[in-house]
């Protein structure tokens, strides 16, 4: 496991260098996106349109920012990640169609995303929960905002960040999946406990993991 300070945009070689468990810090432009932003972006692409912002070799963050107007611009107040699993399909579409290299978010993403990461050379990194104010301090300035009609948290914000991190690489372009590995270890432990207690280890008593 390594530690990297990455300058954005990030090319394919840089993305493929990352491995599960690596710690990364980002400097450069990051685009926030979540539910409604994804819906509009994917709809635009599927209809043959072009997005008003360039995601080539870029980083997107599953985040619904809270910002306030200040001095003729915007000041971030809170930047916490939102759950990424529900964006698996849309995220894969942007990696494939727009050349996104890095996704930042929370929790796991599905197999479709992992396949696209492997094929296109991209990675997924996770933030720490409960650190939204800390991450807001890593923003040097809000450079731009798109689709403000979607509302503050759902608009696409272009953030100039400096040393945004630490982020942990959770999925990489080599098929590495930290979440699947953890889930597998948890399941092994659960079965061991079941056997110790005389419970049928083949029966599924819990819905997760």
Describe this structure in words.
- The mean pLDDT is 94.
- It is globular, with a radius of gyration of 18 Å.
- It folds into 2 domains: 3-176, Alpha-Beta Barrel (fumarase), CATH 3.20.130; 178-209.
- The protein has 209 residues and is an alpha/beta fold.
- The chain has 6 helices and 9 strands.
- Helix content is 31%, strand content 30%.
Which CATH architecture of the largest domain is right? Alpha-Beta Barrel
Overall 3D shape: globular
First-residue to last-residue Cα separation:
25 Å
Helix content: 25-40%
Separate helix tally: 6
CATH homologous superfamily identity of the largest domain: Fe-S hydro-lyase, tartrate dehydratase beta-type, catalytic domain
**Major sheet: arrangement of strands:** 2-3-6-7-9
Q: Count up the domains.
A: 2
**What portion of the residues fall into strands of 2 or more residues?**
25-35%
Unreliable stretches: none
- The pLDDT mean sits at 94
Present the secondary structure layout:
Blueprint: E1 3-7, H1 12-17, E2 23-33, H2 35-46, E3 59-62, E4 66-70, E5 73-78, H3 88-98, E6 102-105, H4 111-120, E7 123-126, H5 132-136, E8 139-146, E9 156-171, H6 178-197
Parallel strand pairs: 1-2, 2-3, 3-6, 6-7
Antiparallel strand pairs: 2-9, 4-5, 7-9, 8-9
Summarize the structure.
The protein is of the alpha/beta class. The chain has helices at residues 12-17, 35-46, 88-98, 111-120, 132-136, 178-197; strands at 3-7, 23-33, 59-62, 66-70, 73-78, 102-105, 123-126, 139-146, 156-171.
């Amino acid at each position: 496991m390594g530690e990297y300070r990455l300058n954005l945009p990030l090319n394919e070689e840089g993305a493929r260098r990352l491995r599960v468990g690596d710690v990364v810090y980002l400097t450069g432009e990051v685009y926030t996106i979540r539910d409604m932003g994804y819906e509009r972006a994917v709809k635009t692409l599927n209809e043959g349109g072009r997005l008003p912002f360039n995601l080539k070799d870029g980083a997107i963050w599953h985040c619904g920012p809270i910002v306030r107007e200040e001095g003729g611009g915007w000041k971030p107040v809170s930047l916490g990640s939102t759950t990424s699993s529900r964006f698996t399909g849309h995220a894969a579409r942007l990696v494939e169609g727009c050349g996104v290299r890095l996704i930042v978010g929370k929790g796991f993403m599905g197999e479709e995303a992992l396949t696209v990461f492997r094929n296109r050379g991209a990675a997924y990194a996770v933030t720490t929960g409960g650190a939204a104010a800390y991450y807001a301090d890593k923003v040097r300035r809000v450079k731009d905002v798109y689709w403000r009609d979607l509302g503050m948290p759902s608009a696409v914000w272009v953030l100039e960040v400096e040393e945004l991190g630490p982020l942990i690489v959770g999925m990489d372009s080599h098929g590495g999946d930290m979440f699947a590995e953890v889930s597998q270890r948890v399941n092994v432990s659960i079965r061991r406990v079941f056997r110790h207690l005389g419970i049928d280890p083949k029966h599924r008593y819990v819905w997760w993991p």
